[in-house]
Amino acid sequence: MKNEQGITLVEVLATILILSIAGTIIWQVFFQGYQYSQRALSKNKMLQEVNIISTNILRTHQTEEQYQLKMLTSGCGISLSANGHTEIFDHNEICISFNQNGIPDVIKPNVEHAELPFVLRAWERTNIENKVELEARLYRMKGGNY
Q1: Do the strands 131-139 and 115-124 form a parallel or antiparallel pair, or are they unpaired?
Q2: Is the residue at 42 inside a domain?
Q3: Fewest C-beta atoms under 10 Å: which of 5, 25, 79, 117?
């Protein structure tokens, strides 16, 4: 009997099978981590955009005598008009909207709207499951000396 050294075809195939299973598991863990991180980055970007918009609307509500707040015709943007100046909040990756129910065409905070319920929503244009919602009250102090 000869003393043959080397590996058999069965051993090579078993090794390839074990390595491919381990590689698939490692790839899935890496890919899921990458997707989670991309979703978190997108959510942070949407949250920052919503905070900027809500701050601008609140500042307008607190300082202007009257203003208009409307959705853009595309349904994915907001128009804020005060004193002949219009500010458009629109983003190419994020869809931004708010609930117009109960919000009049012309908002006069000094007259009838000291507090105004406001819900601002943002979601990715490509993935509606990844969304952010901010619920706030627009308020304005009346009277008093400052």
Answers
A1: antiparallel
A2: yes
A3: 5
Is residue 111 a part of any domain in this protein? yes
**Residue 37's CATH number:** 3.55.40
Within a domain: residue 61?
yes
Residue among 78, 82, 47 at smallest CA distance from 63: 82
Q: Domains in the chain: how many in total?
A: 1
pLDDT digits (tens, 9 = 90+) for 102-114: 778 888 887 765 5
How many CA within 13 A on the CB side of residue 33? 6
Per-residue pLDDT at 129: 77
- Lowest-confidence region among 41-50, 65-74, 77-86, 129-138: 129-138
Q: Which residues are 87's β-sheet partners?
A: 80
